[in-house]
Specification:
The protein is an alpha+beta fold. It has seven helices and eight strands, in the order βαββαββαββαβααα. The protein has three domains: 2-7 and 89-132 and 139-145, no CATH class; 9-85; 152-207.
Length: 212
């Protein structure tokens, strides 16, 4: 298994379109799946001098946006929004290259940094090719093998319990993968894979489905 870091230009996504339209800053706080091909982005926006109503109207007008919810507005005028996307082109590139998105964070302008999990080192080339085909400028920052893979099954219950009690399954999440990894002193990639593995087993047990 490999973990890679990429810088990706989100200019073609709703975030990039919004940043090109308004003098605002957008911080990506969390992303979860939405329907078959979409995602829900939890973001914190500093609107600067832009009216929140105007900003919201523009985001809602973007074709791929399904819905938008203003979650919270603090005394510092920073606005938290949940934006539902019908079809995420970046997600398509990840799925087609058998790559898992562990986390992403905002960089400068329309750029974001992705941390991804790959089952083979060769898949980074496939991911890069997919992003290129979709017209998404990017650069691979680092790729490395992680070895926290032994005795995975013995850790699943501990990781799932920590995630549940910490509020990982709440929306918006009260704890993220990084915090869980820090508490258990393991990598974010390990936590991400363990959550997926444990969730799959729990769902299979509930429906009485045996692993193929």
């Amino acid at each position: 298994m490999y973990e890679a870091i990429l810088d990706v230009n989100l200019e073609r996504c709703w975030i990039g379109k919004t940043l090109n339209k308004f003098p605002v800053s957008i911080n990506i706080m969390d992303t979860i799946p939405f329907r078959d091909n979409g995602v829900q982005d939890l973001v914190e926006i500093d609107p600067g001098g832009t009216k929140v109503e105007e900003l919201r109207a523009f985001i809602e007008s973007i074709p791929e946006v399904d819905f938008i919810k203003v979650h919270e507005q603090s005394s510092k005028k920073r606005v938290k929004m949940i934006v539902g996307i019908r079809k995420c082109i970046g997600c398509r590139a990840l799925v087609d290259s058998e790559t898992f998105l562990l986390s992403r964070r905002s960089l400068d302008q329309t750029w974001a940094q992705w941390r991804v999990l790959l089952t083979s080192e060769d898949y980074i080339d496939q991911l890069s090719s997919n992003l290129k085909d979709l017209g998404m400028e990017h650069r691979v920052v680092d790729i490395y093998e992680f070895k926290e893979w032994d005795n995975l099954a013995g850790k699943e219950e501990l990781v799932l319990k920590e995630a549940l009690e910490g509020g990982y399954y709440d929306f918006p999440k009260k704890i993220g993968i990084r915090e869980i990894a820090r508490k258990l002193n393991v990598s974010t990639a390990y936590i991400s894979y363990t959550l997926r593995s444990g969730q799959k087993k729990a769902i299979q047990k509930y429906f009485g489905i045996k692993d193929r």
